[in-house]
Specification:
By secondary structure, this protein is α+β, with helices and mostly antiparallel strands. Among the domains are: 123 residues, no CATH class; 171 residues, no CATH class. It has 36 helices and 17 strands. α19 packs antiparallel against α20 and α25 packs antiparallel against α26. The longest helix has 25 residues. The chain starts with a helix and ends with a helix.
Length: 755
């Protein structure tokens, strides 16, 4: 079997190489930014010295910002040292085994407000050192070494965030966006990288595409080349002209945008996204090579404000400015990358200064920090310790949402000594007729994430609201899929036909809750969607149908689309998550051996990757090999002692094999490790009841409902236990509470009659 696996891995590596080679053959030759300077001297001059130009560089006196004059710094119990050895810049710090070692700096990474350094490990791996240089002026607190994770628990060589680990790997995490035409060149057979680039930094061709055909056009060798031989057609200077429409009272672009190409080019790096294809055809849609993140709870606050490090794209898609055709280059110089004007002058280039840049509007002293447009409409959040980044959703401050859904607001960002109620009171006084009150999509997302009554109907209304930004509607559909509510055909059908790819992609996740007939009828056309991200999502959702009674032609067609999904996962074959997905897609098709190999490969890549242990054990359960599954789960407990899902899976295995005492132990440990997981507590309660401790089971179920009052199964179990105990009053109270969430539920109606 392992010989077969090596063959599969070799074929994977061959496919990736062929995919890259085919893309290069079909495309234009990369020339390097210096070749552009002859005709585009002004643009080239603007680009030089920009953050794009300095995104990555070989270490020398011009590129290195940090103090390597035998500087020392201690963090997490490790004393690191930064020094020169001849022309080399060297870091002495703890290596993969925890011992102090000397690592020459291979490349500088970024420049302002901080600079990181890439160190080399075996296998072609470049790793981003977690100790960075603060490039700010001394007066601003800079010119110092600092650790990017100062608040984390002790980070030693075995910690996931240690600089030698997979999470700090440049080849996967960073390289795409700091170099031009990157080829990751991962070899799964040897688990090594041979990463290459056309240009070390973010050059002209990173945004405009390979320049060979353009040069041929300029020299007259390809006079008929489409778009002058450039792969991507970006808006010309005339697109940047805005005029004020007096009748409408708003600024309007003089020449309407023909495409969103510019924003999609920028989004390849300025977004929270995952790569789904090894080659990136600049000029194609973003969804052909990447899958952008939606407004997930861990990334954004309920009202869409930035929470985690999400960059700009997901925020900007929410804004009215995006909806009216504003692009990145309207505010940022395309090549220098600096703002086109300083302070409020940037905003007043489109918005009337006499209306907005006055105390009657901003309610602060003119020229003060509080009077800046960005202070209220683009509040900043700090990442990487010192890097302040503005929220690009360009929203109106809503302290009322702080009160209702817990999102931050710009007012209290400055007035931290005041309450949100105070801030809202001020806004009510200043702007009594403001339309920025009441309903907001954040209420629906907050309701869903807190299990509030009517959350599903709120999400359905939001998904159907054509006035809401597409990324918001897509998020509503994604939340509906998480709630596992019965599918509403009308909503689903419209969403699957939506003009926005994000909406179609999320609608497919909602479709996963439907029956096979609905999936075939509604989802099948999306196997041919023009966007690859949508196609591969359709293949993932419809894959279980390959085991159903499909006609041979349909089964073969679905198989070809599943193959595209597999290839999308092989794009990141070095990641355990990708191997897990390969295992899951093989399992639903009944390919047991392939699924087992993929799960084991995930654990080979990352021995502490808990989901692979759980899914491998479940595969053994399905095939009647629980004894093997138990061995792997016990191994998983040792490798990932804090993994609640491993404990829970082991507890379920002991339930199946009728070992009551260890089942209770591990189910309880899962609850202790992940106290917010309602499902773990629910299952633990069932086992408590089965073991004869009905009182403890009832108490555990009450804890579930305290945190997730809409947990229907927990409520039904509690009602049944209370009835068994003879406490009809407690059963009635539990029933009355859950009926708020499921007023037409048949089983709850039967319990009502019983009571």
């Amino acid at each position: 079997m392992m010989h077969l696996y090596r063959l599969i891995l070799a074929l994977v590596g061959l496919w990736l190489c062929l995919a890259v080679a085919a893309a290069q053959a079909a495309g234009s030759e990369y020339l390097g930014s210096h070749r552009c300077a002859g005709c585009h001297a002004e643009q080239y001059q603007d680009w030089q010295g920009s953050d794009h130009d300095r995104a990555m560089a070989a270490p020398d006196a011009a590129s290195v910002r940090g103090n390597f004059a035998d500087a020392k710094m201690s963090a997490h119990g490790v004393a690191s040292q930064f020094f020169r050895r001849g022309e080399q810049y060297v870091v002495r710090t703890d290596g993969p085994d925890g011992s102090l070692q000397d690592f020459p700096v291979r490349y500088t990474f970024g420049v302002d407000p901080l600079q990181q350094y890439l160190l080399e490990l075996p296998g072609g791996r470049l790793q981003a050192l977690s100790i960075a240089w603060d490039s700010r002026a001394s007066a601003a607190g800079g010119q110092r070494w600092f650790h990017l994770y100062p608040e984390s628990a002790s980070i030693n060589h075995s910690h996931p965030l240690h600089w030698t680990g997979a999470e700090q790997n440049w080849n996967f995490q960073c390289a795409d966006c700091h170099s031009t035409a990157l080829q990751k060149n991962y070899d799964p057979d040897s688990n090594t990288f041979a990463t290459r680039w056309a240009e070390i930094d973010v050059g002209c061709e990173a945004c405009h595409g390979a320049g060979g055909d353009h040069l041929a056009w300029a020299e007259g060798r390809k006079p008929d080349a489409e778009n002058k031989g450039l792969r991507v057609k970006l808006p010309g200077p005339e697109a940047g002209i805005w005029k004020f429409n007096v009748a409408a009272g708003v600024p309007q672009r003089a020449t309407p945008l023909a495409t969103r190409a510019e924003i999609e080019v920028c989004a390849r790096c300025h977004s929270r996204r995952s790569r789904i294809w090894p080659t990136d055809d600049v000029g194609a849609t973003l969804l052909d090579s990447h899958q952008p993140a939606l407004l997930q709870d861990e990334l954004y606050f309920p009202d869409g404000q930035i929470r985690d490090e999400v960059y700009e794209y997901g925020s900007f898609l929410q804004s009215r400015m995006y909806a009216t055709g504003v692009t990145c280059s309207d505010c940022h110089h395309s090549h220098r990358l600096q703002l086109r004007a300083e302070g409020n002058a940037l905003c007043s280039s489109c918005h009337e200064a006499r209306r907005y840049d006055e105390p009657e509007h901003h309610r602060h002293t003119s020229g003060s920090a509080g009077a800046q447009c960005t202070a209220c409409h683009m509040p900043e959040r700090t990442y990487m310790g010192i890097d302040q980044r503005a929220d690009h959703s360009l929203r109106v401050p809503r302290p009322d949402l702080t009160l209702s859904v817990g999102s931050p607001n710009a007012c209290n960002g400055c007035h931290a000594d005041r309450t949100a109620a105070w801030a809202q009171g001020k806004l009510d006084t200043w702007f009594p007729a403001s339309r920025y009150r009441g309903a907001h999509f954040g209420h629906s997302l907050h309701a869903a994430r807190n299990g509030n009554p009517g959350a599903a109907s709120q999400l359905l209304a939001l998904a159907n609201n054509r006035q809401a930004p597409p990324i918001v509607r897509a998020t509503a559909l994604n939340e509906l899929s998480e709630l596992q509510q019965p599918v509403q055909n009308d909503t689903l059908q419209l969403a699957l036909q939506d003009s926005d790819g994000l909406v179609r992609m999320a609608a497919l996740r909602y479709l996963a809750n439907a029956g096979p007939q609905q999936q075939v009828t509604l989802g099948w056309p999306l196997l041919d969607d023009p966007a690859r991200a949508v196609r591969v999502e359709a293949a993932r959702v419809l894959a279980p149908l390959s085991q159903q009674g499909l006609p041979d032609a349909h089964r073969q067609y679905l198989k070809s689309r599943i193959e595209e999904y597999r290839q999308s996962q092989l794009t990141n074959a070095e990641r355990p998550e990708a191997q897990l997905n390969l295992g899951l897609i093989a399992a639903v098709q009944g390919e047991v051996e392939q699924a087992e190999m993929a799960y084991r490969q995930a654990l080979k890549l990352q021995p502490a990757f808990a989901p692979a242990y759980v899914n491998l054990a479940d595969l053994y359960r399905v095939t009647g090999r629980d004894q093997e599954g138990e061995k792997w789960l016990l191994r998983g407990m040792q490798a990932a002692p804090a993994a609640a899902d491993v404990q829970h899976a082991l507890g379920l295995l002991y339930v199946r094999t009728r070992r009551e005492a260890p089942a209770l132990t591990h189910l309880r440990q899962a609850c202790e490790l992940d106290p917010t997981n309602a499902h773990y507590r629910y299952v633990y309660a069932l086992m408590q009841d089965q073991s004869g401790d009905a009182a403890a089971a009832a108490q555990t179920l009450r804890q579930v409902l305290q945190h997730q009052p809409a947990h229907r199964d927990a409520a039904v179990a509690l009602i049944q236990i209370e009835l068994k105990n003879g406490d009809r009053q407690a059963a009635r109270a539990a029933l009355d509470q859950i009926r708020q969430y499921y007023p037409g539920d048949a089983q709850l109606g039967q319990l009502e009659q019983l009571l």
